[in-house]
Amino acid sequence: MRKVQCIICDTIVFIDEIHRFNKSQQDALLPFVERGVISLIGATTENPYFEVNRALLSRMQIINLYPLENKDLEKMMDMALKDKERGLGRKNIDVKIKTMEYDATEMRSESI
Question: What is the 8-class DSSP label of residue 102?
C-alpha cells in the first residue's frame, strides 16, 4: 500500500444531507479528516448529534444556520438594485415596494 503525503491540503469536501450516509460511509471519511487530507463540510436538516457518528462529530464544528427575515432579504435586493459596481445599479431597474415584499416572502418560503 502506497502512503500519500499531503504537504498543503486545501481540499474541501461538501456533503449535502450527510445524515443519509450510513455508519460505514461516515467511518470511511474519518481517516481523511483525521490526517487533514480533507476539510469536511456536512449539511443536514436533521439533528447532527443523532445522525452523524460520534467519531466524525468530535472532529467537526457545528454551525446552525437560520432563515433570513423578509426585511433582510428586501434590504439585500435593494442594495443589489442600487449598487452600480457589483449589482444592477447601472441598469436603473425600478421595482415596486410591494413586488419586493412579495419576492422576499417567496424566497423565504423556498428556503424553509
Answer: H
**Residue 12 near residue 36 (C-beta atoms within 8 A):** no
Quick: pLDDT tens for 9-53: 579 999 999 999 999 999 999 999 999 899 999 999 899 999 999
Nearest of 73, 75, 28, 79 to residue 55 by alpha carbon: 28
Q: What is the pTM of this model?
A: 0.63
pLDDT > 90: percent of the chain: 54
The H or E element containing residue 48 is helix 48-51
pLDDT score of 73:
87
CB pairs under 8 A, 24+ apart, for 52-56?
Answer: 52/18, 52/19, 52/26, 53/23, 53/26, 53/27, 55/27, 55/30, 56/26, 56/27, 56/29, 56/30
Which of 19, 24, 10 has the alpha carbon at shortest distance from 42?
A: 19
| Whole-number Cα distances in Å, 49 to 11, 52, 101 | 25, 6, 36
